[in-house]
Sequence to fold (277 residues):
Amino acid sequence: MEKEKRIVVETINLTKIYGDGVGVRALDGVSLTLYAGEFVAVMGPSGSGKSTLLNILGALDLPTSGVCKVNGQDLAKVKDLDRFRSKTVGFVFQLHNLIPTLTSIENVEVPLQEESMSNRARRERAEQLLGLVGLSPRVHFLPGQLSGGERQRVAIARALANHPAIILADEPTGNLDSKSTAEIMDLLRQLNREQGTTFIVVTHNLAVARAANRIVTLRDGRVLRDERVDNAYLVDLKEFKESTLGHAILDGNVPPELHAIGLDKVAEQVKAVLEKV
Ligand SMILES: Nc1ncnc2c1ncn2[C@@H]1O[C@H](COP(=O)(O)OP(=O)(O)O)[C@@H](O)[C@H]1O
Ligand SMILES: [Mg+2]
Fold:
């Protein structure tokens, strides 16, 4: 049964132009409604406006025009943006941005400093968060003593600290090998399912998009596609489309080996399917 969905992000005609006059139109009329509990992958080629969108949602940047509401708050009307950021949004970046001189647990305690909590309660919460991301054995390690994947786990624990309405992650696995990428994505998916955390994750990695239940594709600052991944094969089809064979079929060049099994006869139908994904 369809659960009642709470809107956590609403943008209307969001536009961002960098520079003046004929500046770069990084976002060009983006209207999106995102719901609590969704796991949204934002995809698209480099320069398509993904980071700009994320930065505006996290109040790190201002739109040139259009409306941006996060958790019911119109960001143009929010007086204290620092407070908004610390209460409502958790950030995870490609480079983890941990403080190098603080241990894992101390890094996770940083966003909890503003909370009226005892030191002991703060420590317990940070410990619990590090447990949630599977890092209990590393609580007293410095970032320099951790692997890339472990550092990203600390960054995720830190992002979760204040129970944010949304977690914004900009290419969170961009610096990781494929094994660590898969582990981090499993973790994000698990947090999404078990804790109901809402994720908006920028990526151009289809393996990462596999964790999502919705894929928003940007091109030239516009929403090119916005699709729900209730079709388990969608990501596979996208991957196939980008493979050598997928390209060959799209270009009408079915390799001779595949003529033998009659693929050339169905190539037109396969091509039509691939063109839509
Ligand atoms: N601070 C900036 N000043 C000028 N142009 C920018 C700035 N940030 C991004 N851009 C431009 O805006 C467009 C979108 O950038 P970005 O949002 O970073 O794309 P993506 O994250 O999809 O690669 C690009 O053309 C980029 O060069
Ligand atoms: Mg970017």
About this structure: The pocket of adenosine-5'-diphosphate (ligand 1) is lined by residues 18-19, 24, 26, 44, 46-52 (CB under 6 Å).
